[in-house]
Amino acid sequence: MQKLKVDVAVIGAGTAGLVAYRSAKAQGARAVMIEGGPYGTTCARVGCMPSKLLIAAAEAAHMIDLAPAFGVHAGEKRVDGVAVMERVRRERDRFVGFVLEGVDNIPDQDKLRGYARFTGPHTLVVDDHTEVEAARIVIATGSAPTQLPKLQDVGPGVITSDEVFYWQDLPRSVAVIGTGVIGLELGQALTRLGVRVSVFARGGSVAQLTDPVVLRNAARVMAEELDLHFQSEIVGAVQDGDEVVLTIRQNGEERAMRFQYVLQAAGRTPNVAGIGIEQLGLALGANGVPLFDSRTMQCGTSHVFIAGDANNERPVLPEAADHGKIAGDNAGRYPDIRPGLRRAPLTIAFTEPNIVSLGASYKQLCAPGKPKFAIGQVSFENQGRSRVMLQNKGMLRVYGEYGTGRFLGAEMIGPRAEHIGHLLSWAVQCRVTVEQMLEMPFYHPVVEEGVRTALRDLAANIARGCSDIDPDEVEPGT
Predict the structure, then answer these.
(1) Which positions ≥6 away from 425 have C-beta within 8 Å?
(2) Which secondary-structure segment (H or E) carries 259?
(3) Domains annotated on the chain, with CATH
(4) pLDDT digit string, tens, across residues 107-152
(5) CB neighbour class for 161 (10 Å; exposed up to 12, middle 13-18, buried from 19)
(6) How far apart are CA 18 and CA 324, in angstroms?
């Protein structure tokens, strides 16, 4: 068996792992990166980029359906599923190619192919061909789609989101299990492309929303287009030819439905099982993830750091890159541990309307021991630019701190919310007050005027010392 001694071993070559490796090298460390699966990152290969390609095709199809409302009439719409998926795969492969070019630039001696397993606090075995002794270790093993026990070993019709982007054609029908970001994005996109889709959720959640008022609004808006089934329990499934018979229990009654595919989109699970993590002697939390400091990525006071989806803190690409930078820097200069840059939280579901949360969530602000906070809101139903575009759906709720007037965060479903979310997350990170935000320019007519309406409502409630909101009677704003 080959033996290798390094300063830093990085397990995983996804977004977090690549950044961690480069950051450790920049600190002057002798580093090696270990990867057993395909290079290319989850985002580029089976995540954010191919899903947006599918969504873009769906938006084009939807605009044809919407055109008559503007007085514009096209010919008969035809969706070529083979051409749609060919473009998804072609452009996806292009994005993956950019990542592979970066990997190719890493010296061969710094890349180990194979799956790593801990044999001790400082030792790893890679596929039984190499033993690595590392002074410090970064775990960046990513995550995998969560597999539901009742859908195990059913047959080829039960899939995860990873397999969607290898389709040669659009399917006839799909059952989507989960109303998180992935489930809603893919469910809506496939629906708009003419696929018969039903979406099932165990509870009543919608994407990452925690604000009950925004959540109710989002559930109603999404149900206008999607066949949504909340409070549904998966009883079981059977492969029958080229279809899956899926049995669901809802309101105490069971029913069986047939779909070409059952798509499991009930979240992702950190890849920390089966790597011998028990050899490290670290305290473990949920899903077997080591407890770590989110400012430094250090596990306890050890020489081990964890970054990206593997730590399950904020499993989105920008956070994975930041995690990797912090973990790699600290592993490279250990024991000189320093807090790294943590940005204001920002999560976006690219449904239409977009679903966005940023800064402190409603749930976080309502946690025991937290001081009371003020709320402002606006509905996009009567917002000028939104009505012009026939996209007048959704709601924004903004949160502010009593006394200081500081802007704390927001949750929303609304038109162009991906852009609004960026503006508001910048405000959170800059720690500006609501009054300072209202001093900023607002052009006319733009969707952002709705933000101003919500901020004015928030400023008034901060001044009054109460939120003055009845969650069951939300009046549309302008």
Answers:
(1) 343, 344, 345, 346, 358, 359
(2) strand 253-259
(3) 2-145+269-333 (3.50.50.60), 149-266 (3.50.50.60), 346-464 (3.30.390.30)
(4) 999 999 999 999 999 999 999 899 999 999 999 999 999 999 999 9
(5) buried
(6) 7
